[in-house]
Amino acid sequence: MKALFSSGLLLFIAGTAAAQTRPASVTFLNPATVAPAKGYSHAAQVDLGSSTMLIISGQVALDAQGAVVGPGNVGQQAEQAFANLKAIVEAAGGTMRDVVKLSYFLLDVSQLPAVRTVRDRYINTSTPPASTAVQVSKLFRDELLLEIEATAIIPKKQSTR
C-alpha cells in the first residue's frame, strides 16, 4: 500500500511539474480607446481553449487622453470607468455580458449605490457578475474616487463549415 501511495504521489508531482512548464498562451491588450497605460497593460488575455479569459486592470475615471472625468462626482467617475471596461472587453471581442467578476475600490463605500446605478446600465442585471467592494484610504491620484477591475470569460466564435 505504501508503494502504491508513493507511486501515485510521484505521478501527481510529475504531472504538476509538467503542467507548470507549459506556458499558457497570454497576450496583453492596450486599446487606443482608453488612456495610455504607463508601466502596465490594461488587460491580459489568457487562451482557455474554447474561450478567452480577460483579466482587466483597475479602471478609473480617465478619458482616452488621460484627463480625469467628473472630479468630486462618483457617478460620473463610475460612468467613465465602466466605459473604459466596456471598451477593453469589446477590443478583446467580447461584450459586457461576458464579465464574470467586478471588484470595486472606493474612497467611500457609502457611495456604492451610485456606482451600482451606473453598473446596471452596463451589465446583465438578471445574472450579475460576482463582485467585491472594498473601501480604501487613497488611490493613485487625489481626484479619483473609485477604481474598478474586472474579469471576463469570452467564448470563442465557432466556425461554421
From TrEMBL:
Keyword Nucleus, does the record have it? Answer: no
**InterPro entries from the xrefs?**
RutC-like_sf, YjgF/YER057c/UK114
Q: Which UniProt keywords apply?
A: Signal
| Pfam families, per database record | Ribonuc_L-PSP (PF01042)
Signal sequence, renumbered to the chain: 1-19
Signal as UniProt keyword: yes
Question: Which protein family is it in?
Answer: Belongs to the RutC family.
Q: What is this protein called?
A: RidA family protein
Source organism of the structure: Hymenobacter volaticus
Organism phylogeny: Bacteria, Pseudomonadati, Bacteroidota, Cytophagia, Cytophagales
